[in-house]
Amino acid sequence: VQLQASGGGLVQAGGSLRLSCAASGPYFTGYFLGWFRQRPGKERDFVGAIRWSVGTTSYADPVKGRFTISRDYARRMVYLQMNSLQPEDTAVYYCAARHHSQSSYSIWGQGTLVTVSS
């Protein structure tokens, strides 16, 4: 499995942005595709994830109700729709994958920078 994230950029507070993650590989059954972010001077944090096969999602508390993860099964794309963005959402965002048998994410894409101006 290989991942490539894109879609970052500069947006004003209150605005929206959608990140994309292109996933390649033989199959994704049993995988979780997750989004993480690393804010300036902070450790990398979990944002949310989607179970590839069934589409169920989970989110970290700071983004619940504002961010939505979805996937295009046929195109092997995972999306992070971010609404009501705030300056504290400024971070490098990463997509990652783990098999359900693993406890941690082991496959990472390159990050994409999101900057939210006040």
Explain this structure to me?
There is one protein chain. With 118 residues, the protein is mostly beta strands. The chain has no helices and 11 strands. It has strands at 2-6, 9-12, 17-24, 31-38, 44-51, 57-59, 67-72, 77-82, 91-99, 107-108, 112-117. The strands form 2 sheets. Strands 2, 4, 5, 6, 9, 10 and 11 form a 7-stranded mixed beta sheet that branches. A 4-stranded antiparallel beta sheet has the order 1-3-8-7, with no helix packed on it. The radius of gyration is 13 Å and the shape is globular. It starts with a strand and ends with a strand. 30% of the residues are buried.
State the low-pLDDT regions, or none. Answer: none
Distance between the termini: 37 Å
Can you summarize the main beta sheet?
Answer: 7 strands, mixed
Query: Structural class from helices and strands?
Result: mainly beta
Q: Provide a count of the helices.
A: 0
Order of helices and strands: EEEEEEEEEEE
Strand content: over 45%
Mean pLDDT: 95
What is the β-strand count? 11
Radius of gyration: 13 Å
Helix content: under 10%
Topology:
Layout: E1 2-6, E2 9-12, E3 17-24, E4 31-38, E5 44-51, E6 57-59, E7 67-72, E8 77-82, E9 91-99, E10 107-108, E11 112-117
Parallel strand pairs: 2-11
Antiparallel strand pairs: 1-3, 3-8, 4-5, 4-9, 5-6, 7-8, 9-10, 9-11
